[in-house]
Amino acid sequence: MRTEIRFLLAVVLMIAVLVITNVMFPPVPPEAPLLPPGSDSVQVALPSDTEGTVPPGQAGSEEERTEPESRDPVIPGGAEEAVAEGEGQGRGSQVLVSVRGPLYDFTFSNLGARLVSARLLSFHSFTFPGSVELVSPDGNGALGARILVAGDTLDLRELPFEVEPAEGLRLSEGGEDGTLRFIYRHPTHPFTYEVTYTFHSDSYVVQVSGQARGIDGELLLIDLGSGIPFNEQRERDETRASAYVVNHVQQGIRAQSLNRVTGVQVEQGPFLWAAFKSKYFVFALLAGGTEEEEAYLGGVIAQDGAGDNQADLTVTEALAGGGSFSFRLFMGPQEFARLSNLGEDMQNVNPYGWKFVRPIVRPIVGIIMAVLTFLHENLKIGYGWVLILFGVLMRVVLFPLNQKAMRSQIKNMAVQPLIQEIQAKYKDNPEKLQKEMMKLWKEHGYNPLGGCLPMLLPWPVLIALFFVFQNTIELRGVPFLWLPDLSAPDPLFILPAFLGISMFLLQWVSMRSMPQTNQQMKMMMYFMPIMMVFIFFQLASGLNLYYATANIATLPQQIWIAGERKKAQAKGPLTLSK
Length: 578
Fold this sequence. Notes:
The protein has helices at 3-23, 62-66, 83-86, 235-241, 336-342, 358-379, 383-397, 399-425, 430-444, 453-456, 458-471, 494-512, 519-536, 541-570, and strands at residues 96-100, 104-109, 114-124, 131-133, 145-149, 152-155, 162-164, 169-170, 177-185, 192-200, 205-213, 219-225, 243-248, 252-257, 264-277, 281-287, 297-304, 311-318, 324-333. It is α+β, with helices and mostly antiparallel strands. Helix 6 (358-379) packs across helix 11 (458-471) and helix 8 (399-425) packs across helix 14 (541-570). The longest helix has 30 residues, at 541-570.
């Protein structure tokens, strides 16, 4: 059963208990295809029996479709004989070039100017040695290019490029920038392809620009790789989160799980961006070289990858005048502030919550994260202690509402004999029964939902916290006491058991203050804690920690209210006014 469904079931059960116990069992007393400008004649499609060597919308000859992808580009216009000369360029001798900054370590290959590794130095991987890896090591890398020209495809992904600087880049802290340039020159034809990457030491954003000279290119095809490899301990969490996401100019954001990609899937543009995402990280290509530049991607082609939960993704972009192009890359964590700064609704690449609750959950998540971060940074304490403090503070803030709810329950309990008397007296006169019930409500403030409505207010916080632990990278891998990761389940199941015990204590204290109890309430007292342990034992340990703390913080108030309930019982039953 999926984690979200388990949590939703828990919320429904807990709300049902509040409503049912107050109403039914009161205390007994007493799309359209679009292409970017300049590519109207290009159809974005791939035959299902190819591996991407044929350009979208161009079938080509049978011989072209079966030739290996690693061949030199055939330059249209009768220059095919130049291919043989290109064979001697040392295509098999690969040279790796590194770009290292405070935040990342990117490795490029001179063959195809492809990115073969993208390490995020600030984040530890639970599956790879060292840092988080964003490029699959068993794939063909990312950012390899092909060019659609005159009904043919120039495949540059295995050709040797010149690299400037040849030794790579080392960026120091303080906002230092660096530029890495790759150039391919055809040996006989006046064709050159150049791509330039501009890196910033304090940012995960990379500006990319380039130009294809000597040909009349129409469309650039950029490989985005085969997906972000698993970096988390729980494989099923990564499997569920792994997807490619696109943001259509008109239709908005849509995600497709990688394990559901079959054959060739074509996404018709125009798009603002396309991205791979995992649970906590993202590899995105955004149209335009700057935030101010208005540009669109032409389309996206997804195809079955070589491994499980992999899909090869190709993004198309129309070449501007002179064969120039530009776009941005973001290879980094799903930090809300960083993604928001990219614009184009990039922060919703991995949105919080189900679609129908996002408008409510998103602001609450923002407030909760602001509070948690403030407590963590200003009190200089770990997030585990922050969650305990937050659980206590929530109960302090909600104390007046809980007080009102519990007093309403006491009042409803005292009014029950009068309700039974009215129902027996006017059982054959519905109109009179309704009038007397309204009179009772006015005189004694009777409201069957008054005891549960104030207690429902903490649930948006609990729901928001669930998605905080599901998506928020700030809590990823944070240990606390015996817990190795607050965003993962408790490996010893201590917190879920403690949560169940705390729920039982709350109900037990409440039940002891009642002179009589029915069987339904007794069953609920034993059944609900067991159900909650079953549901919560696979949820994030941080969520268990918060909820158990909140229950314990409520216990003194529950004991005090039990005393108030006994005092109300000692006053004797209420009577109907004449």
